Amino acid sequence: MRQRRMNLLAQLGAVLLMAVATAAVWAAWLGWDQHRDVQPDGSTTGPYEAWQVIGLVLTLLAAVYWATSKRYFAGAVLGTTAGLTVAAFYDWSDDSSGLFMIGVGLVAIGSFVVTAVVTAVIASAKGIPGPRTAATA
């Protein structure tokens, strides 16, 4: 029983650590560029450049790899999803149209699905067994 409680606390700690780290990585890669670029034809782009988003994804991939390697599956999936969702909400909440909530919802769904798949692929490639259930413990 004590071992199970310690494992649960470790998993919850990993979720919290990954959520905070993910929000910090968002701020580092995307938080400082808040203006849209106006093109000569009047259209706007941004506020993020492609290299910023690629940097965010690669940094998060390294963090998810670490968490999965340590068997912190919940941290890899739920922590990353929570961190991205909170960061997107905070970053986009000044949108006057109110449509930012759709984007935040899409970030939440997309990051959950993608990190779950990436975590499963990493665990499979490394031969890491999945979490044990009460029946197999």
TrEMBL record:
Keywords: Membrane, Signal, Transmembrane, Transmembrane helix. The chain crosses the membrane at residues 51-67, 72-92, 98-123. Residues 1-23 form the signal peptide. This is Integral membrane protein. It comes from Streptomyces finlayi. The lineage of its organism: Bacteria, Bacillati, Actinomycetota, Actinomycetes, Kitasatosporales.
